[in-house]
Design a protein that fits this description.
This protein has helices spanning 2-18, 49-59, 69-112; strands at 126-133, 154-161. The protein has 162 residues and is mainly alpha-helical.
Amino acid sequence: MPLCYIEEFLATTDESNEEPVSKHSPKSGEIICKHKDKGFEHFAHGLCEKCYNKFTKLSGGLEGGSVPPAFQRAEKKRLEAAKRAEEAAAAKEAALEESLCDTQNSEVESAMTPRKGLSGDKSSKMGSEGLINDSMPPKDPEEGGLLLPESSCTAVISVFFF
């Protein structure tokens, strides 16, 4: 079956090679579009206004740097997808940063909370207030530390021992 198509293609190619190709431009005002016998006026490039508008819509026009509509649609989709991916990454990063701040703050609070049996004299009260900021240099993850991003996450912790 494919052999038949190839033979038909070759025969059509031979026929089209035998026909001379006109290399002259249409005369000024001459219409060469499908409306040439219907009395339409010449608009541009041998086309009536209707055919010219259709041509520019489909091809993107004749100006240098014109981008065909199919490419414009594909480029628009690509840019929208890239924007959505960027927004999703930013939202994920913000959520991760907030989660790390919450985790760090809860770890600091639990470390500062007094444990039973550690309080000495009940008559002495000791109050301390600490300011913890996570903008310290991050630890190397290979050494077992957490690699935390620098952020504006700051916690004020008040601990009282009784």
